[in-house]
Write a structure and sequence with these properties.
- 59% of the residues lie in helices and 12% in strands.
- It is built from 11 helices and 5 strands.
- Helix 6 crosses helix 8.
- The protein is globular.
- The protein starts with a helix and ends with a helix.
């Protein structure tokens, strides 16, 4: 590979708002410079390592990370609290405890049907599935061969990006999940989510009561 393409690869990943795969990088280069350009996936991978080593040597606050089977620029973890302060995107997309539970089951059991999900959770999942589909965290993978041929659900690339995973093999193993569940930071975050959910429900209840009072007057 011509060394001039190092900067091209860097520019393509930098300019992308989404995870950019090696195939997309190669296609973009060949569309501009012709099909005769000699470049492959391993050279893209090596270039990303080269760039990350340069960023590390320069003590830059960012790296190119491997996520959703592609590449994306991201700030280092130690700067997360500062970046998080400025960004409300995660808050807008926050998932409820029930949605997280359902998403976890789908991720580990996929492809899975709605009846199978409900048999595990013990509650109706119509609303949860609709929410996860709207957020593009899950998608319909087909139909089961069982009676009635129910729809099969599985996770999407958006799911990988949401949780910072490169592929499904990066999902925590059961033993790792047990350790995470006992982690103090996790428990604190869970408490905050539950408190926020409770506050929102109280606000909705108060608003409904006020609307009922106004309609009676």
């Amino acid at each position: 590979m011509d060394n001039s393409y190092i900067s091209v690869i860097e520019a393509l990943i930098f300019a992308s708002d989404d995870s950019l795969s090696a195939e997309e990088i190669i296609r973009a280069i060949k569309e501009i410079d012709g099909e005769d350009v000699q470049i492959n996936k391993q050279e893209i991978e090596d270039t990303v390592d080269l760039l990350n080593n340069k960023y590390k040597e320069n003590e830059n606050s960012f790296r190119i990370i491997r996520i959703a089977n592609g590449y994306l620029y991201a700030t280092l973890e130690e700067y997360a609290k500062f970046v998080g302060y400025l960004s409300s995107e995660r808050a807008k997309r926050r998932l409820s405890q029930a949605a997280l539970e359902s998403l976890s089951i789908i991720a580990y059991k996929q492809p899975i049907t709605k009846p199978e999900l409900e048999s595990i959770r013990g509650v109706n999942s119509d609303y949860i599935l609709s929410t996860l589909l709207d957020k593009n965290l899950i998608t319909i993978k087909g139909r089961a061969e069982s009676v009635g041929r129910p729809l099969l659900y599985g996770t999407t690339d958006e799911f990988l990006k949401y949780f910072g995973l490169n592929n499904l093999n990066d999902l925590p193993k059961p033993r790792e999940l047990e350790e995470i569940m006992q982690d103090e930071d996790f428990l604190e975050q869970k408490r905050k989510i539950m408190m926020t959910d409770l506050e929102e429900k109280l606000e909705e209840s108060t608003k409904e009561s006020t609307d009922d009072e106004n309609s009676d007057q």
